[in-house]
């Protein structure tokens, strides 16, 4: 059985029910909107976020979930989808997971409005049922994601990111959403318990490991796939690069910074930067940090008794660092 199917197995029934509820939560009286949301629903990815919500809830609640759990999963997926639609506009990206993005098919104006619509549907789903504790978790996540993106843009201009700032950026940009999924799952069944914070932290650690893994793909850290250097072309400061810059001479540092600022479209130069980062031990350092986040996440998880749900979450954490794409 494929690893994702194994992770999903203990929540298969909930995931099937969730798909119907999620589709329902997007519905509108406007035909154009329904056509676009139908397109979105039919091109879903692995749906890791709702899986985190359901697995956490079932782990804490003797294998059962409630209507709040379904709403929590729908809200996070609505808000996440809204941010992706907006991201594609901001990044002028015309493909997502191999399919055309909303802005590619329906242009920017419609894409921005669809993102706004999904965001409002997510907020209203919580408000209409009085799930203000869940709404707070979501709202904090949206604020953090926006701040993280803006912090990255601000720092990219000067290319002066320290390791600490890098962790701040990825915590806000990536980890905060996975943290929200896990704390939503906990809060849906055990509101006001210490488990809500424990699982927020667990999700955050998973998200940190996930993002570092993504950064490593840019250097062809897998046996398959050539280095892409996309992050270098986009002047993104990632952990392997930050480490290399902190462990080289002034002359080497100015060459790297100059390469990223002024020669980031030059394929040969980008390859040279990738080779330089590898030589300075940037990849090994990033792998060590990623595994440290993974181990801390597993330590938290192991404070709970063993169950199918704990095992699935453990598989999920390992999948995050072992995945090939």
Quick recap:
The chain is mainly alpha-helical. 76% of the residues lie in helices and 1% in strands. The protein has helices spanning 3-8, 12-25, 31-41, 48-60, 67-90, 102-128, 132-158, 163-189, 194-217, 230-233, 239-246, 250-262, 267-279, 282-301, 308-322, and strands at residues 95-96, 99-100.
Explain this structure.
The chain is mainly α and 325 residues long. 76% of the residues lie in helices and 1% in strands. The protein has a two-stranded antiparallel ribbon.
Identify the notable features of this structure and list them briefly.
15 helices, two-stranded antiparallel ribbon, 1% strand, 325 residues, globular, 76% helix, mainly alpha, 2 strands
Secondary-structure blueprint:
Blueprint: H1 3-8, H2 12-25, H3 31-41, H4 48-60, H5 67-90, E1 95-96, E2 99-100, H6 102-128, H7 132-158, H8 163-189, H9 194-217, H10 230-233, H11 239-246, H12 250-262, H13 267-279, H14 282-301, H15 308-322
Antiparallel strand pairs: 1-2
Helix pairs in contact: 2-5, 4-5, 4-8, 4-15, 5-6, 5-7, 5-8, 7-8, 8-9, 9-14, 9-15, 11-13, 11-14, 14-15
Low-confidence stretches: none
Biggest pleated sheet: 2 strands, antiparallel
In total, how many beta strands?
A: 2
Strand composition percent: under 5%
Q: Pairing-aware structural class of the strands and helices?
A: mainly alpha
Task: Measure the end-to-end span.
Answer: 18 Å
Strand order within the widest beta sheet: 1-2
Specify the oligomeric state: single chain
Q: Please tell me how large the radius of gyration is.
A: 20 Å
Shape: globular
State the helix count: 15
The percentage helix is: over 70%
Mean pLDDT: 88
SSE string, helices as H and strands as E:
HHHHHEEHHHHHHHHHH
